[in-house]
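Look over this record before class:
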Amino acid sequence: MVQRGYDQLGTRYRTHYEQLNPDRYNDWLIAFARLLPKDASVLELGCADGIPTAHFLSQQFDYLGVDISPVQIQQARANVPNARFEVADMASLNFPALSFDGVLALYSIIHLPIAEQPALFNEVYNWLKAEGYFLCITGAQAWTGTDEDWNQLGTSMYWSHTDAITYQSWFLEIGFTILDTHFVAEGDGGHTYFLLRK
């Protein structure tokens, strides 16, 4: 459902993003980039069409973006030709340990069934180099379900997430240090920001 939804959205996803207060993405990315070494290798899980994350980070770092949607990846390659992109299911990725200085997942892991998320967080920890950083946006309250007309965009979408306290406990159990976490308000609800260090 997630792949089909983002394929159907095509370029309309950009319109949706622009309505989300894109300035906050810029603040997150600037803060994240300042933590990384000059020659950093960065992975983004759920890169969509490459705007703004790939566009920003690929100007400074060795960037790889993955997304389950071939349509979004096609757009990303056109939007950010100097970055690398691959069509992939984040739950099935396989990288050697210590591959990346930084990993990002902005509103993407919450499209993965909650039962599969802890294993992916463990994988992210393994992929990161020592003192590597993980920036992610998770759920704030526990909920799993679908929207048959997501934001009146004419497509169905699936989400699955637990509450912020549970995410925090998972990260600590894995071995991450939490550098920053806070609620990100959005309309009547919101998500949770986590900046983590290995």
The helical segments are 2-9, 12-18, 23-35, 53-57, 70-79, 117-127, 164-174. The chain has one domain: 2-197.
